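Appendix B, Record 12. Input sequence as logged:
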Amino acid sequence: MTFPPNPTSASAVLGDRLRIVSRPGIAALAKALTMPVVVAAFATYLLVGIFTMRVPSSADFPGPQFFPAIITAGLYAFAVALAVSGIREVRSLPDPHVAELLAAEAGEEAPAEPRAVRIDVRSFLWIIGSFLAFALLLDVLGWVIAAGLLFWCVARGFGSTKPLASLVVGLTMSSLAYIGFDMVLGLPLPSGILGGF
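Logged structural output:
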């Protein structure tokens, strides 16, 4: 390990050369805070929708603003938790220069660079494609079938090896969601081909 040929007054006092190092920079912090900002932006979008929603005066409690408000509050809490976790992670990252110096002093080899992670394009396309197909086919197929197929495609994108079980679980969950929203809450979901369009 070589040090810069420029000793400072502090290194002259200590009898050693100093190396100025810094903690992980703004790039690591920006990377850690990207997802919390996206979640908070979506929560703000929902919040604006809640406040601009026209609610009839005849609406009873809980009303059409209640459940979106719960989701918005949850999203804000999730964004804060993600931000705190990201900041803690960035603060705990070891500085590569300090790790290198400590390893050199201990006579060890410098720590290896972290292994690069690549994106599984096939899985990514399965998931993105399934969301696009869901958005395009929702009115035609209806909620139960479209959401069941969405669940199946996302499960396949995440590597599910049991396609029939994924389809059964997806159709069951989408049916329960349909019953909950359409029949219990009175919020209609598209019935598509099962309801005769």
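Residues 6-13 have pLDDT under 50 and may be disordered.
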